[in-house]
Write a structure and sequence with these properties.
The complex is a heterotrimer of chains A (467), B (210) and C (245). Chain A is an alpha/beta fold and 467 residues long. Chain A is built from 22 helices and ten strands. In chain A, helix 3 packs across helix 12, helix 16 runs parallel beside helix 18 and helix 19 packs across helix 20. The model of chain A has no long low-confidence stretch (mean pLDDT 94). Chain B is 29% helix and 22% strand. A six-stranded parallel sheet of chain B has the order 1-11-7-4-2-3. Chain B starts with a helix and ends with a strand. Chain C is an alpha/beta fold and 245 residues long. Chain C is built from 13 helices and eight strands. In chain C, the strands form two sheets. In chain C, strands 2-1-3-4 form a four-stranded parallel sheet, sandwiched between helices. In chain C, helix 5 runs antiparallel to helix 6. Classes of the chains: A alpha/beta (467), B alpha/beta (210), C alpha/beta (245). At the A-B interface, helix 2, helix 3, helix 4, helix 8 and helix 10 of A face helix 1, helix 7, strand 8 and strand 9 of B.
């Protein structure tokens, strides 16, 4: 799954979710959400940390240009080469050009949602460059030819037997359905790729403006391989990943792993300031960072919607979302799923393409409770619902005219007591004969209680009787 | 030279390149350390939870411990940093006398990939999360702690730091730093933990103390 | 003698006459003099939550008018409806709008039923008798928007003869979500399916909720599963004196 969706058909997909998906996803989310809850219980200062993190992100967003400028200066002074890409096509062009300049045939990639956002693998393939995913989950879905079903654990929808089949078919090895064995096979196969790759492509979790440092938070070691083995490294990072300084990072590192997987710290966290300083050190001789915009600067105009840019990609929202747990990641139509996907995709794409996503929620609020940087996800969902239903300064309404008309009628009926009471009587009569639409959409799942609406009459007769 | 992305950002925020930057919100007070023994105990607890193997080692016992490691892990080839503590302890000579073939730490990566053991020092220790911190330089190559399947990190109690704040304050000037918290791991297959994905499968941390 | 206005909510008005009657009688028994403004219709939440903010205002104005005739506090049997008024009417009528003063007034004196009984009237034992195994589903807006974490359980635990059993995933959404239940019925169905599974596994004979919307959804889900477990609004539980003379 790469490239921007033309229309995210949440209704269509969720009419028929393959039953294996919720089962697999719930296994993952239960583990991850449980892990998070255990870590949170250990830290009495958790709420304080969330507030500070939220404040720092809000401050950074308000001064985004200044911090990016500082990062540019420091990273360049450290010997790094920085590029700014306005669109996804620009970003792909920059990376492809760098690759072509260096005669790159194969590149090894560590997990990067930004590269999925811009559709980099496809662009490189068109230019004859093979990009091999090395994060185990990404490697599996690349072999399988599908997209990610979860932000952190992209292959969570696949059972070990299915993964064994994929390895057997695509790698030509005898792969047993055992996670340890499958991991060993991946290690051996990918090690060869790491050692011979011409280029390493990575993402980045944070950009530290203070010193021009890229921070990579990983577990498997492939992130370290990608940033250490090839002579050339390119990191693709959304500009919203910038943070002011190292002190700020202390807060984010305390929150990130705990919120994401329930670990106190991920296995490997790298802090890379420019290319290697000597050949003996190892690491890339040339280090490029491509900072992408791809619609984020447009989001900055919206003081409510832009809180989405505080996100540190932990997936706690998805892990705690009962809607996500029952539909999985594919329902959200793009590389980013769960509640954060529901507020990101409609703002990056045009509203019409993703107009269903803000409604793909019961507004239960569990996501807002667990977000480590306190993004008010339910509020932003409603804010975007308004954009779809009524339009605002950023977009024309995109909800079908018939629904908007029905809303107008409803509004009128509910604002006039006499009309409301009349409507209530009509409903009582009609439903004693047939089930009209949209009630049929309720009753196809579960029965409806009987319409009664007798309170008003009861109150009145009581009052009259009491006189 | 204009940067269209920065210009777009400025326009959206209503800022210019002269707009001021307010003070970043304050951070809370960092953690205070307990006694050295308590910090070490915490560190080893956390390391063990991560399936790392930690120990306080007397310099006189290093030879025996190294022999044990080489035998149990079947070490044939090793690479090591030539840094002060490793030099003082005589690790290189010990490994040679155990019949281990030594590969220079700045050898090509294809050679280093055949090493079973990589020996480094650790520049800082963070007890709360069982983390060791390594810088990188010509004398301290990055691959030593990455390519071999067993990683042995040697350190001393004065490398203990109470919190991220101190590590960052001291370490931010380095061009490369890596936090290592246990062996390489994944849970991508059915959320089942598997160790030794791409990085080392076994991590040993020896705290050298008389 | 305290006075209060009855906010019956459009859902309870259509489907839960008994619950509203029980609410009336319980409050009167607690010594509250009740008023029922007959011009009330709906708080506007179904329109507001679906992005029709402009269209909500007409409905909200009717609410302000209906309940603005008396200065008595307003009590309703739903955390989400009360929450809509309390937490969103000032968004609809910010400073500078003609309705702002009225909205400030109304939002300062509106309560959900259990909130009113426990925190204002300071009552916990309403004399109910219900000798059964009972579990509790924490409704999302009641819990998170209204911040009512203990009130319902306090009242439930004061019921004579009642044995409380904990519901697994008590705070997980039941899948109602207002229009969500008809816009994405399959997802809603999966969610209520999970909730029903947990209710059955709890061993309870009855599940209590504070929300007419959740009640509709969960009761329907239980019936669909052909489960004998009863779903009840907390008001109906508190009005029950089962087995008492």
């Amino acid at each position: 799954m790469s490239g921007r969706p033309v229309y995210v058909d949440f209704a269509g997909y969720t009419e028929n979710v393959p039953p294996s998906i919720p089962a697999a996803v719930q296994l993952a989310t239960a583990r991850l959400a449980g892990g998070r809850a255990a870590r949170v219980a250990e830290l009495p200062e958790w709420e304080e940390l969330r507030q500070i993190a939220s404040d720092i992100r809000a401050h950074t967003i308000q001064h985004m240009d200044a911090y990016l400028t500082k990062f540019e200066q420091n990273f360049t002074a450290a010997g790094g080469q920085i590029h700014f890409a306005a669109t996804d096509k620009d970003a792909c062009q920059i990376v492809t050009d760098i690759a072509k300049e260096h005669g790159v045939k194969t590149a090894v990639k560590s997990k990067s949602m930004a590269t999925e956002e811009i559709g980099l693998n496809d662009a490189l393939a068109k230019a004859g460059i093979q990009a091999i995913e090395t994060d185990l989950g990404e490697y599996i879905i690349q072999l399988a030819g599908t997209g990610p079903s979860h932000i952190l654990a992209p292959a969570v929808h696949l059972k070990k037997e299915e993964i064994a089949d994929i390895f057997t078919e695509k790698l030509g090895v005898d792969a047993p359905p055992d996670p340890q064995q499958l991991t060993r096979i991946a290690r051996e196969t990918l090690r060869a790729e790491f050692l011979k790759a011409d280029m390493g492509i990575s993402g980045g979790n944070f950009l530290i403006a203070e010193t021009g440092t890229l921070v990579m938070v990983t577990n498997e070691g492939n992130g370290r391989m990608v940033s250490t083995m090839p002579e050339l490294q390119v990191a693709i990072v959304g500009f919203d990943k910038i943070i002011p300084d190292w002190e700020s990072l202390t807060i984010f590192l305390k929150l990130l792993a705990r919120s994401a997987t329930g670990q106190k710290m991920s296995t490997y966290t790298q802090f890379i300031t420019g290319p290697r300083r000597s050949d003996d050190e190892g690491g890339p001789k040339e280090f490029h960072i491509v900072i992408i915009d791809n619609g984020r600067s447009k989001i900055l105009k919206d003081p409510v919607g832009r809180d989405v840019l505080k996100c540190i990609r932990c997936s706690a929202c998805a892990n705690n979302c009962p809607v996500y747990q029952n539909v999985g990641g594919f329902a959200y139509g793009w590389f980013i799923s769960g509640p954060i996907g529901a507020i990101y995709t409609p703002q990056i794409l045009d509203t019409q393409a993703a107009r269903e996503l803000p409604f793909a929620s019961t507004l239960c609020g569990a996501c807002g409770d667990v977000c480590p940087v306190k993004i008010p996800i339910p509020d932003i969902l409603r804010h975007l619902r308004r954009r779809v239903a009524e339009g605002d300064e950023f977009a024309e309404p995109s909800m079908p005219a018939s629904i908007r008309a029905a809303a107008g009628v409803t509004s009128f009926a509910l604002s006039q007591a006499w009309l409301y009471r009349l409507g209530s009587k009509i409903l009582l009569t009609v439903t004693s004969i047939i089930q009209p639409y949209p009630l049929t959409r309720w009753t196809k799942i579960r029965p409806l209680p009987a319409f009664s609406a007798k309170f008003r009459g009861w109150w009145k007769s009581r009052k009259d009787g009491a006189k | 030279m204009t940067n269209p992305v920065l210009e777009n950002i400025r326009r959206s925020l209503g800022r210019t390149d002269r707009s001021p930057v307010g003070l970043r919100p304050a951070i809370y007070t960092p953690r205070q350390p307990q006694t050295v023994d308590a910090e070490l105990s915490l560190f080893f607890d956390e390391l063990q939870k991560l399936a790392g193997v930690g120990a306080v080692v007397n310099p006189a016992d290093i030879a025996a411990k190294l022999k044990e490691l080489v035998e149990t892990q079947e070490i044939k080839k090793a690479t090591l940093w030539h840094t002060p503590l490793i030099g003082k302890l005589g690790i290189e000579e010990m490994l040679r006398s155990l019949g281990v073939e030594l590969v220079p730490e700045n050898a090509p990566k294809t050679e280093l990939a055949h090493c079973d053991l990589g020996v480094t020092e650790a520049d800082y220790i963070l007890p709360e999360t069982g983390t060791i911190v390594l810088h990188a330089s010509a004398e301290m190559p990055r691959a030593t702690s990455l390519l071999p399947r067993v990683h042995l990190a040697l350190t001393t109690p004065d490398m203990l730091r109470p919190d991220l704040h101190q590590v960052f304050a001291e370490g931010k000037g380095n061009s490369y730093m890596v936090f290592i918290s246990g062996p390489s791991r994944t849970a991508d297959i059915e959320l089942t933990t598997a160790l030794g994905v791409h990085g080392p499968k076994d991590l040993y941390v020896w705290m050298v103390r008389k | 003698m305290p006075k209060a206005q009855l906010f019956i909510t459009c859902l309870a008005d259509q489907f839960y006459t008994k619950t509203l009657q029980n609410m009336t009688e319980l409050l009167e028994r607690l010594g509250v003099e009740l008023v029922f403004p007959p011009e009330q219709t709906c708080c506007g939440q179904p329109l507001f939550n679906n992005g029709f903010e402009d269209k909500t205002r007409a409905v909200a104005r009717n609410f302000l008018r209906s309940f603005g005739q008396s200065d008595a506090p307003i009590v309703g049997p739903s955390g989400s409806c009360v929450g809509m008024v309390k937490h969103h009417y000032l968004e609809l009528f910010p400073e500078g709008t003609p309705e702002h003063e009225q909205a400030l007034d109304i939002t300062s004196r509106i309560y959900e039923f259990t909130e009113y009984v426990v925190n204002v009237l300071k009552e916990t034992d309403l004399g109910a008798v219900y000798p059964h195994k009972v579990t509790y589903h924490a409704s999302c807006h009641y819990l998170r928007e209204m911040g009512l974490k203990t009130e319902a359980k306090t009242l439930i635990n004061a019921v004579q003869g009642l044995e409380f059993v904990q519901l697994h995933e008590e705070e997980t959404c039941c899948g109602f979500g207002g229009a969500f239940s008809v816009t994405y019925p399959e997802v809603s169905g999966s969610m209520v399916g999970n909730k029903v599974k947990n209710i059955i596994a709890s061993g309870a004979e009855t599940v209590i909720t504070t929300e007419p919307g959740c009640l509709m959804n969960i009761a329907g889900g239980l019936r669909k599963s052909e489960s004998p477990i009863r779903a009840m609004h907390i008001i109906d539980l508190l009005a029950t004196k089962e087995g008492a003379a």
